[in-house]
């Protein structure tokens, strides 16, 4: 079932700032570009402990408390955001061994393939980019770069795809996760490029350009930025960041401060309407004043929060109990631009004109 995007407990800023150590991002004010990335690299390296290659972190960081909320393994390659999962894994019990198809066991996936950095430490054991995923799907993904598939040669049961790239400028084989987790993947990649700034230019990967500054070759930079913009930080990501940080000692800055992505890697204008829900409607749209009427295919009174994001992932407004006295929301004098409204599992795009 659909994840609660920063909505289920408290607002984005309150929740995140309660977990970030005081002064953790000191020295980042007024920085941008390479200077900001270098500063974040120093911050992310500080306190980083190599925990070894084990299963224990997943037992804390990768439980499904957001969709079915059944405490099963939260696997991005089997989770079905719109209904029942095709299968579920139990923490520890279903760790891989052998497998000959989907749904047999879960293993430890390096979202940045370990072949790209030669199994070097601490990259190999960095749990900010290690995820618990279906072993068979992980094998299908192999070390192919993430991308957007034109014609799929194979599709997982939750819709993740392997196939030829439809990205303009790259014609190789790519693996495409479902929309629900594209922003998660993008912020993992930005973390890795930042944490290992001084080593990454020596890593061999189609997604890289061979530099420590821009890091990502086109069209992959634009794709990751787009994924980040279309899929803002989720409660799942916040909780996982906190869980890994508690054990490993360092944080993913792009989960804590998604606005850093735009400051370092820029923004893209492309907005894919297919990535937004069709079961939430805003009127008028474009918005001419500060009051909007919101309707959906569910009883909106059940949602305790609504949050508004700009297109670089920043939370610009949080509304408590937004629909208890009707279906209108008063905006906080938002500048002209494109925004995303999210409440519960519903979301949609609107324009302030």
UniProtKB/TrEMBL annotation:
Residues 283-349 form the Secretion system C-terminal sorting domain. Residues 1-18 form the signal peptide. Keywords: Endonuclease, Hydrolase, Nuclease, Signal. SUPFAM superfamilies: His-Me finger endonucleases. One of its GO terms (molecular function) is hydrolase activity. Pfam families: Endonuclease_1 (PF04231), Por_Secre_tail (PF18962). The keyword Nuclease applies. Belongs to the EndA/NucM nuclease family. This is Endonuclease I. It comes from Epilithonimonas lactis. The lineage of its organism: Bacteria, Pseudomonadati, Bacteroidota, Flavobacteriia, Flavobacteriales.
């Amino acid at each position: 079932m659909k994840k609660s995007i920063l909505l289920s407990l408290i607002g984005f800023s309150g929740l995140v700032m309660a977990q970030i150590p005081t002064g953790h991002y000191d020295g980042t004010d007024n920085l941008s570009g390479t200077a900001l990335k270098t500063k974040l690299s120093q911050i992310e390296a500080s306190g980083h402990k190599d925990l070894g290659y084990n299963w224990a972190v997943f037992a804390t960081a990768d439980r499904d408390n957001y969709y079915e909320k059944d405490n099963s393994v939260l696997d991005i390659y089997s989770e079905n955001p719109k209904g029942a999962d095709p299968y579920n894994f139990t923490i520890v019990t279903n760790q891989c061994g052998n497998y000959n198809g989907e749904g047999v066991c879960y293993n430890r996936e390096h979202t940045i393939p370990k072949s790209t950095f030669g199994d070097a430490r601490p990259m190999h054991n960095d749990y900010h980019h290690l995820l618990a995923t279906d072993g068979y799907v992980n094998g299908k993904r192999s070390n192919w770069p993430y991308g957007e598939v034109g014609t799929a040669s194979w599709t997982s049961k939750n819709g993740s795809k392997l196939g030829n790239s439809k990205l303009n400028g790259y014609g190789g084989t790519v693996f495409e996760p479902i929309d629900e987790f594209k922003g998660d993947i993008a912020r993992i990649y930005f973390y890795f490029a930042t944490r290992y700034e001084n080593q990454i230019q020596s890593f061999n990967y189609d997604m890289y350009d061979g530099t420590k500054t821009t890091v990502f070759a086109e069209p992959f930079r634009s794709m990751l930025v787009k994924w980040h913009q279309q899929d803002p930080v989720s409660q799942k990501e916040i909780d996982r960041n906190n869980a890994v940080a508690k054990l490993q000692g360092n944080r993913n800055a792009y989960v804590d401060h998604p606005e850093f992505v735009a400051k370092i890697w820029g923004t893209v204008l492309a907005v894919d309407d297919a990535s937004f829900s069709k079961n939430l409607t805003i009127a008028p749209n474009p918005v001419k004043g500060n009051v909007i009427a919101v309707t959906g295919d569910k009883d909106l009174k059940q949602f305790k929060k609504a949050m508004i994001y700009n297109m670089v992932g920043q939370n610009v407004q949080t509304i408590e109990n937004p629909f208890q006295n009707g279906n209108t929301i008063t905006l906080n004098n938002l500048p002209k631009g494109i925004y995303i409204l999210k409440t519960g599992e519903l979301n949609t795009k609107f324009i302030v004109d």
